[in-house]
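Risk register update: the risk of archive-format incompatibility is retired. Evidence:
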Amino acid sequence: MLLILKKEIMTKKEHIIQRYNSIVYRYKNQKVKDNKINCYICNKCDHITKTIEIDIGSIPFMFNCEKCDGMGTTTFSKDIAPTQKSTIEWYRPSLKEVLTYKDYKQERILDGGLEHRKINLENQDFFFNY
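Archived output:
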């Protein structure tokens, strides 16, 4: 007698949802350290781009300079510009956002990476204390 096991085939979307939920579950009870600051120093103009993490996850070693077309290198969470305000925040995008991303960007988020966005500097002092 031959027994055939039925394999469950998961669609790409279902797989993405499963991986996203796994990341959210992994970090659900963890809080970001207060003022998790990172600075990137541009290799072209020496500008410092200051960032803050509002969610737990990984951020890149290098980041595009916000002032020129150079590339900034991380200071490994050292705040080398304590009087400068953060201009970029790292956050975990929603599942809806992740489903719209292309392969590389999607994989980075599903591997625990964070996405970035500019901080509204007009409201920064009101909403954030960093």
